[in-house]
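Here is a complete protein record:
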Amino acid sequence: MLLSASFQKDFRCFHVGDCIKFRPGVNLLVGDQGTGKSSLLFALSKMATSRGDPPLVVETDCLTTTYGFDFEKDNLRIKSDLSKDPVRFHAQMAGHFVSHGQFVNAILLGCLEKPEAATFFMDEPDMALSIRSIRRLSELLKELAAKGHQVIASAHNPYLIESFPEVYSLEHRRWMSSGEFIESQI
C-alpha cells in the first residue's frame, strides 16, 4: 500500500519537499484545474512503471501491483485498441459503442476481479458521467477498498466527492471533509 509521496525535485506545480500522505482505501484528489491532480497521478504512475529519474520518492508498507487508468485517454470512442491490458480488454469486449459510464464500470468490475491487493491510479473516472453512473462509481470504489485495494483518484464531480467523508485537496494541500472542500469552491 502506498503511504506517501515526497517530491525530490520540482515537477510541474510541485516543489522539492512537497509530501502527500495517503490512506488505505479510496483517496480522492480534488481541487481546481491546475492544482496538480493529474500531475501527481502521472508522477505516481511513472514511479510505479519506470526506472528513470522520477520526481518523487514513495513510501510503501509493502510492494503491491499498480494499475493506472486515465479515463480521458482510455475511452473507447477515441482509442480503438486497448487489448494490451487484460482489464481494459475486458471492458473493450463490452462493445465499441458503450457509453463512457459503462466503460468505467466495466474497468472497475475488472479491477474487482483482481485476487491480490493492488493500488489503482485513476485520473478522472467521474468525467462525463450521469448522476446514476456517479453513484455506481462511488459504490464500485468502495467495493475496491473493502476488498483491500487502494485507490488514488482525481475527481471533480460534487456527487462523487460528497459520497466520501474526506478528500485530499491539492488546492489546500491537506485532507479535509468533503463538505468543507465543496464549500470552499462556492
Remarks:
- Helices lie at 37-49, 86-92, 100-112, 131-146, 158-162, 178-185.
- Residues 75-83, 86-97 have pLDDT under 50 and may be disordered.
